[in-house]
Amino acid sequence: MKRSRPRSRAHSLRGRALVALLVMAAAVTIALTMPVRLGLDLRGGTQIVLETKSTKTTKADREATDRTVEVLRGRIDALGVAEPTIVRSGDNRVVVELPGVQDPQQAADVLGRTAQLTVHPVLGTAEGTGADAEAAEGEKGERVLPDEEGLRLRLEAPTLTGEDVKGADARFDQQSGAGWQVTVDFADAGGDRWAKVTGEAACHPAGDPRRRVAIVLDNKIISSPQVDPSVACGAGITGGTTQITGSFSDAEARELALLIKGGALPVPVETIEQRTIGATLGDEAISAGAWAAVIGTALTALFIIVVYRLMGALATVALLCYGLISYAALAAVGATLTLPGLAGFVLAIGMAVDANVLVFERAREEQAARTRPSTRSSLTAGFRSAFSAIADSNVTTLIAAALLFFLASGPVKGFGVTLGIGVLASMVSALVITRVLAEFAASRPAVFRRPHITGISTTGPVRDALLRRDPFLMRRPRRWLAASALVMVAAGSGILVRGLDFGIEFTGGRLIEYSTTTQVDADRARDALADAGFPRAVVQSSGDGDLTVRTEELTDAEAETVTRTIGELGGETEKLRDELIGPSLGEELRKDALLALGLALAAQLLYLAVRFRLLFGTAAVSALAHDVVILVGVFAWLGKPIDGVFLAALLTVIGYSVNDSVVLFDRIRELLAGKDRKASFARLTNRAILQTLPRTVNTGMGAVLILASLAVLADDSLTDFALALLIGVGVGTYSSVFTASPLAIEMYDRGAGARPARRKERGTEKPVPASRAERQEVS
Fold first, then answer.
1. Does residue 22 have a pLDDT over 90?
2. Domain Protein translocase subunit SecDF P1 spans what residues (predicted)?
3. Per-residue pLDDT tens for 364-414?
4. Integer CA distances (angstroms), 275 to 45, 104, 458, 546, 575, in order
5. 521 pLDDT exceeds 60?
6. How do residues 737-749 score in pLDDT, each as one tens digit?
7. What is the chain's percent helix, strand, coil content, to nearest 5?
8. What pLDDT, on the 0 to 100 scale, is given for residue 579?
9. Closest C-alpha among 720, 538, 737 to residue 638
């Protein structure tokens, strides 16, 4: 038995090493063969200008154009284009900017399709052609259209429209050999109407044109099948589902399903312009952001190596592998990388340190307890003990990422993709790659003889100081709650006093396009407009040497200042376009984002309630709300813009805050099930705080070093991003200890703690019984 244990360890190490090699080989292959698509801010893309047209029944006004923007957003998401920009320009134009589109013409065609889907009973064939056929169209909505074979059919007024459609999917029918087809699911009322129209058609004999039902898309019959002979007269096809066939290819079927599912445009649109546009950020801004990322990552790696020595160096190698895996995954799923996304990606490297720090701190505890004979056995115990905290914190984040992906749209959906990839890659990095490297190094004779070089043979200065002093931080939890409430009210009052300065993505603004005699570099124009008092102006090159300036709403005097500034750079200046534009983060997108975020918080609360206790989940989500209010309030007091970059930072802070609380509550759960469970709940919570504080400090330092580099060295847009995250990291670290923990203590005292008559001191409270699940975990 004693001989089998080393052999089993060696076997498991080889297995993990093989998995790590396969993952890294796949990541390298993908990274070399599939480049990541860059966003509009880094590379530019294609701009398509659409104009809405009035019909006899609908006027192409601002309201109809806003509805058109939302339908187009759904189509672009279905096309697989991430991080687009879609805004209303004027009352009847829509400006669509698409990054990295392979076929701009195909995208323009799909966006321009009206997708007016209607279903018509067939009255028979039309007599004559041309003008005679047109004259045969009645006044009751009848029309004449050629079917798939060119035979002209007289169609009755439509009985169903695209509004009756619930969904559509392209499927390949292998059983009947019919090839690709589109399955259409009708809504409740639509299913009844479909049964009625097919039931009436079934009353005519087979071969009669009147037994057919015509499905029309954009005034073209795409399918006119006969009702199957098995369908009885008056019964119709029930079930609310039908199949559209027509010898479709794979691409045609998917495009048709996209148009039907994406919804009909409320008014027709016409493509009036298509051009190539430059990046919204200049080369200097991109270069500064890249250097800040490199320096911040290097500082974080240096910090980890200083603290954990050899294990820190190996963790740094694993983090580099994490970066490669994340990059390959982004390329594989076709995600679009923007500058805030790149900054978030770099921050994720700092946050991925968390899993390694958790393992190393647990290994230090095992080593300090003298219960493990060697560094390797301490590492093994550290990985085993830290697994539950790593798993729970990452699962809560994955829940949020999944809901953001499935329920939100636009940049919020893209953030869900990036977040999910980062979480999965960090788990592979910490639990597989770091473990393989660390256990291999710890088993070397040279390391075995010199355990001090591993970095886990001592408990560290932070833990030593805490053990010497043993402060009882949770003696008076209500004071911490009062302090948290005071800070939250002080920060949150900024929202009421100063208000929120929403950026152009939320409010819309003004778009001005210039043509100059001398071509103006976009970087020079940005700097000049910033000096003139317009630091948030978005400047892009467009077409053949033209320049587009997008700003918040301007007065006529301010617009004249912008024009004069551009004229000073480019000589004689002609204003090609001057229009008000709508928000790129429209009302429907904001509603979807808020819905997804609300459901994500509810799902996290439910998960934490199941894995821990309801009071832990409630405390964690309450601390999260506390962090969000403070962050938004501070930005309100500072007068900083609430824009798309801030939205990305806010979502990142939410994930970070929950992780901190989960790690702390995991330790409380462990203490509740251990030998010290007879201690009071406040004492156990205080002990958990002291035991996890070294991890909290080291993880926070890793994130702060990267964020400080971004704040000091990067472009202004990333400075606000880094500032938001610095505030969020600081507040999130504080709230997990001094908001979530005291709140959990107070909730316990009121719901399941000792009786008030016996609570003279927190040190004499009723012992906390372990639940059955908690006892099973340690048995």
1. yes
2. 66-122
3. 888 777 665 677 888 888 888 888 888 888 888 888 788 877 776 666 677
4. 9, 9, 63, 11, 18
5. yes
6. 999 999 999 998 8
7. 60, 15, 25
8. 79
9. 720
Q: What is the DSSP letter of 285?
A: H
Q: Which helix (H) or strand (E) is 144 found in, with range?
A: strand 143-146
Helix (H) or strand (E) holding 527: helix 522-531
Say if CB 136 and CB 144 are below 8 A apart.
Answer: yes
Q: Tell me if 547 sits within 8 A of 280, measured CB to CB.
A: no
Six token digits for residue 339: 């500058």
Residue 750 CB coordination number (10 Å): 10
User: What is the three-class DSSP state of 24?
Assistant: helix
Q: Where are the alpha helices (DSSP H) in 263-338?
A: 283-332
Alpha-carbon distances of 548 from 97, 240, 255, 289, 580, rounded to whole Å: 13, 49, 32, 23, 13
Neighbours of 444 (CB within 10 A): 11
198-240 confidence digits (pLDDT tens): 899 989 988 888 999 888 877 788 778 888 888 888 888 888 8
* CA–CA dist 75, 260 (Å, integer): 10
Check: CB of residue 182 under 8 Å from CB of residue 248: yes
Short-list 308, 394, 287, 367, CA closest to 702: 308
- Residues 311 and 315: their CA atoms lie apart, in Å, by 6
CA nearest neighbour of 354 among 325, 394, 296: 394
Q: Give first-to-last CA distance, the chain, whole Å.
A: 22
Q: Are 326 and 422 in contact (CB under 8 A)?
A: yes
Contact 739, 622 (CB under 8 A): yes
> How confident is the model over 69-120, as pLDDT tens digits?
877 877 776 666 667 788 888 888 888 888 866 566 766 776 766 666 788 9
pLDDT surpasses 60 at 25 = yes
What pLDDT sits at residue 113?
Answer: 66
Checking if the pLDDT of 779 tops 70, the result is: no
**Contact status, residue 277 vs residue 44, Cβ threshold 8 Å:** yes
Give the pLDDT band (50/70/90) at residue 771.
Answer: very low
- Which 8-state DSSP code applies to residue 305? H
- The pLDDT assigned to 78 comes to 63
Residue type at 377 in one-letter notation: S
Compute the distance between CA of residue 597 and CA of residue 605 in angstroms, rounded to an integer.
12
Contact 101, 107 (CB under 8 A): yes
CB atoms within 10 A of CB 150: 6
For residues 760 and 601, what is the distance between their CA atoms, to the nearest angstrom? 36
Which two tokens mark 612? 């821990």
The residue ranges of DSSP E strands in 557-646, in sequence order, are 573-581, 641-642
pLDDT of residue 178: 67
Read off the pLDDT of each residue in 272-281 and give the average, rounded to a whole number. 76
Look at residue 493 in the predicted model and tell me its pLDDT. 95
3-state secondary structure at position 129:
coil
Give the number of other Cβ atoms within 10 Å of residue 654's Cβ. Answer: 24
Tokens of 311: 């294990």
β-pair type (501-502, 641-642): parallel
Task: Give the gyration radius of the chain's Cα atoms.
Answer: 31
Closest by Cα among 638, 643, 409 to 538: 643
Q: What is the dihedral of CA 278, 280, 286, 288, to 10 degrees?
A: 140
Per the CB < 8 A criterion, the answer to whether 220 and 136 are in contact is: no
Q: Pseudo-torsion of CA 176, 182, 187, 189, nearest 10°?
A: -70
Scan for tokens 């895996």, then name that residue.
325
Rounded Cα gap, residues 356 and 390, in angstroms: 9
Q: Which two tokens stand for residue 8?
A: 């089993």
Which amino acid is present at 362? R
CA dist., res. 75 & res. 88, Å (int): 16
The answer to whether the beta carbons of residues 404 and 597 sit under 8 Å apart is: yes
